[in-house]
Amino acid sequence: MALVFLTCLACLAGPARAELADFTPEERAYVRDLGPVTVCVDPDWPPFERLNARGQYEGVGADLFRLAAEVAGLRYRIVPTADWDESVAASKDGRCRLLAFLNQTPARDEWLLFTPPLFTDANVFITREEHFFIADPAELTGETIVFPSGTSMEERVRRDYPNLRVLNSASEREALDMVSERKADMTLRSLVVAAYTIKKEGLFNLKIAGKLPGYDNALRIGVSKDMPQLRDILSKAVRTITPAEREEIVNRHVSINVETVTDYGLVGRIAAGFALIVAIVVAWNLRINKLYAELERRSRTDPLTGLANRTHLDAVLRQEADRAERYNRPFAVILFDVDLFKAVNDAHGHLVGDKVLKTLAKAAQATVRASDMVGRWGGEEFLVLCPETDAASALVLAERLRLAVRGEPFETGSVQTVSLGVAAFAPGDSVDSLLIRADDALYRAKNAGRDRAMAA
Questions:
Q1: What's the structural domain count of the chain?
Q2: pTM for this model (two decimals)
């Protein structure tokens, strides 16, 4: 079956594919004269890559690398190693000129050049069943995370999350075993590899407990730094591989594993098991994406009023100020707060005070324009961002806000008022100077008797 598969890959990588890569005559001559190039791989990283009992290179990464090499017309020789650490060491000392399937990192940039990704895959946290969902690893204290020695994810986590204590294992399987046996709290591994290993090894006390955005695997070919022309040639070859072809290679790889079994009842159970893995992976992705969308929404929203919170307002304010300065566009802000709010809390209690803020927020949201953003700046203070708006137009909007709040029925049973300060962005302004002028205008409105809008 393996021979048939290699023949099919050769068909895909025929002269038409090489022409698609648009190699120059000089590049073709370079590869032809290069001779066999030594390649190191991870000998134990199924289903991505491994060296089987006969020393043959196999797996999804193996098939993708083989396809890129055939498109480029590259002859190569796999150098067997005992583990990934030895493969990396062989790459550093020149025994291997290529690493076939790995992430790019700053440390690896010191001795390797990289092609575009052959394959991308999410990294996920794997924990025991009882562990809580991990939304932000920066908030974890006293927890351990295990990685197979020498992985790019270990390098990144050590840099970005010093609050986690990093442990090492000799292999993917050992990393998952350490979590399963409570020797580590978690690991961060490829979604495909984790689902495959958990199912294959029966580690059913483990679960996927979160996804770390920006930590996806982008698995590339690493080329010795003294061979930039080879990197460029292989990059052209990698770019000819389409998403559909990547999917076909994955499917063919799975087919190889299934078709070597002669017990067709077992074949059906294996196929059903693989379908279950796919369903679990898809379900977890949907669940995790939904949770992250909700977490992102909450991170931008004030929980009491439902408006933008100060963190989100501040980020958008700085973007709009930069845009106003760069393109000389009008931009204004309206800063307002509730008049005599302390008296409301003293007379009616904080629960009623919270209801007043919620009612005011609803009235403000209904009054501002679609292009504006209103949010809670802090306490009883609110801020409106008004893109493409000069001072005069912002003052008109502020007056509409004042009247809208005045006409709103509040839980106190009394008329509630606000004072508002308006400031427009001027050349040379900073975010701080703009807010200071709006704040000054607000206090002038307060000192003038409240329930009014004033411009800086």
A1: 2
A2: 0.50
